Amino acid sequence: xxxxxxxxxxxxxxxxKQAGEGRRAHQHxxxxxxxxxxxxxxxxAAFAIAYRLVQPGLLGYVRGLVGDEAEDxxxxxxxxxxxxxxxxxxxxAGFRGWTATIARHRALDHLRRQKSRPRPSAFxxxxxxxxxxxxxxxxxxxxxxxxxxxxxxxxxxxxxAEAVLLRVVVGLNGPAAARVLAxxxxxxxxxxxxxxxRLAQRLRIPxxxxxxxxxxxxxx
Amino acid sequence: xxTHQSGGTGGTGGAPHEPSVEDILAAAVRAESPAHESQDQxxxxxxxxxxxxxxxxxxRRRDDWRPHRPRRFTARAWRATAGALLASLxxxxxxxxxxxxxxxxxxxxxxxxxxxxxxxxxxxSSTGSGTPGQQTGESTPSSSAPAPxxxxxxxxxxxxxxxxxxxxxxxxRNFEKVTGRGNALNATAWQRLxxxxxxxxxxxxxxxxxxxxxxxxxxxxxxxxxxxxxNKPEDETGKGPAENGKGQQQTS
Lengths: 220, 252
Prior knowledge:
The complex is a heterodimer of chains A (about 220) and B (about 250). Chain A has about 220 residues and is an all-alpha fold. Chain A is about 70% helix and about 0% strand. Chain A is built from ten helices and one strand. Chain B is mostly helical. The radius of gyration of chain B is 38 Å and the shape is elongated. Chain B contains twelve helices and one strand. Helix content of chain B is about 65%, strand content about 0%. Chains A and B meet through helix 1, helix 2, helix 3, strand 1 and helix 4 of A and helix 1, helix 2, helix 3 and strand 1 of B. Strand 1 of chain A pairs parallel with strand 1 of chain B, so a sheet runs across the interface. Chain B: Keywords: Membrane, Transmembrane, Transmembrane helix.
């Protein structure tokens, strides 16, 4: 979150790649695990810490699923999380997966209810306005708005979008994401890879993954 | 331009995901700070749940996210391996038991035929259980009836003598226990024995010749009926049920 404006050199990125998702998530997971343990003993302040650590990713995930009404759906999910917190067993990373599962169920319930009254996707207009698709390839894509990012993700097939959101936004590892989605880890890994590759193409970020991972499908 | 090159170096790690895409997405989607009212709402729900005692709720399977969960699969695999090993040992034991018994040199009396001893074990156990005579008398012949039928066909042929002597030997041992108890001697097996001896009164002598000792000192029919007769069949039929049990496993 501290890295709001992204205007980075290549070496920064390389460092970010290693330090970023992996270690940052690890540090937070330790803190999160301790907070959850204290919250399970009744510590309200610890529950607030856990909330602040989990909510950004969780809300982003729910946004990717339900769009504008994500705040309400996430609030519903938090009610259930607070109610069932005593049942949870696991560490910080496990708590991310557990909460993501609850949020996903609430989101799917919401979508099922919504099906009766279909409404236009919230992302269509944003997608057209995406600066990356028209303007120069350079630093414009280093930062995109939340809506633009969600619009790009919404372009993906459902399984790819969810896999990307869980891996990148929620910060789950492969097996945890697979458990949330009730799928095999291999399927989720493939879906996340394809989704990220497509997003990179949309963002015009040159992917070396075409050469570096020959086992998976070539660029389409 | 710089971005292009940096993107290239960023992706050379061989990771399946292009890192810059992840960073951009994570920064964009996660950047928004949560609204305060929803946090207050969640905290209120937490307080309510805590005060209602919900923190002691039972953990369901879907609530267990402990990291050792994947190890369960290896534990299951290990258990399967141990089971397979046990099964192979059991079947191997059956094979040894099947082929090994006739070659035991010190036991000439034991014929390769396993059915007679195994069927002779029920009378031993039922007599040993100390049940009243009538019941014992009935159960004994009925359960030992298959034994002569197995050895009946070799009975007529000359080479059937070992099985016959084997089953007859067993019947001789049991004869003393059964004598005078109800209708036991009317059963086919005993009638065969009596027939082979040439009359009921000749049976002790016949059996003595067969077993190579005099059965008369041993009887003590009523004093310690459970102990001595029981031990006799037991030590020789001890192998019987085991073989029988393995035979059933083998067929199943």
